[in-house]
Design goal:
The chain is α/β, with parallel strands linked by helices and about 190 residues long. The protein is built from 5 helices and 7 strands, in the order ββαββαβαβαβα. It has one domain (about 5-190): Rossmann fold, CATH 3.40.50. The chain binds guanosine-5'-diphosphate.
Length: about 190
């Protein structure tokens, strides 16, 4: 599967400020989950999404065009430990407004760190998406950080932790390229008319 060519369009603080799109896939996850690395791997472009943004910096809705009215949304990472509650609330309000209000949104990719497993915040995000019946798919990052001898158990544990079957989850490694083709396939499918 060739990379998905992505072009940065705009960063916004409000869903109202985003240009219209026909079909969009959004990617969300805890900060440090590997979101930027994954976007760069899917697009095969280093430096497209910024890796390891400094906590506390302005968090924005980053929109990428993938052509023909299709786009990918890089949502701000949640759960920076050192950020005051007031800013955390602003972030969740921005993410929620986007997820509930974005027209054309086809799928929300929820990233979970394969090395540490689903966190309380990941589970809260999934509960929230389920309660609003929003289409979502769990992608687990950093496959290469799990020892081959424990990967089977780990896959079952992570699946149980997010209340899904192991076969409904996509494992990836941006570092090694594992699962990137499969994820590209899925994104193309979700963005296809
Ligand atoms: P973000 O904050 O979610 O955008 O996460 P980043 O992409 O900045 O990655 C956070 C940290 O995890 C960085 O140190 C990355 O190098 C590392 N990382 C991301 N993906 C992988 C992966 O697939 N394997 C390994 N071993 N490390 C990764």
């Amino acid at each position: 599967m060739p990379p998905i060519a992505m072009k940065f369009v705009v960063s916004a603080t409000k869903v109202e400020d985003l240009p219209e799109t026909q079909r969009e896939v959004a990617i969300v996850g805890r900060s440090n989950v590997g979101k930027s690395s994954l976007i760069n791997a899917v697009a095969n472009t280093k430096g497209l999404a910024r890796v390891s943004q400094t906590p506390g910096q302005t968090q924005l809705l980053n929109l990428f065009s993938v052509g023909k009215g299709s786009s990918v949304m890089d949502l701000p990472g949640y759960g920076f430990a050192k950020v005051p509650g007031r800013i955390k609330n602003t972030w969740s309000a921005m993410i929620e407004a986007y997820l509930l209000g974005r027209e054309g949104l086809q799928m929300i990719i929820v990233l979970v760190d394969g090395e540490i497993g689903p966190t309380k915040l990941d589970v809260q995000m999934l509960d929230w998406l389920r309660s609003h019946e929003l289409p979502h798919h769990v992608v687990v990052t950093k496959h290469d950080k799990v020892k081959p001898s424990t990967i089977g158990t780990r896959k079952r544990d992570v699946a149980a932790g997010v209340l899904l079957h192991p076969e409904d989850i996509t494992w990836v490694s941006a570092a090694k390229g594992t699962g990137i083709d499969a994820l590209r396939d899925l994104i193309r499918l979700w963005l296809a008319k």
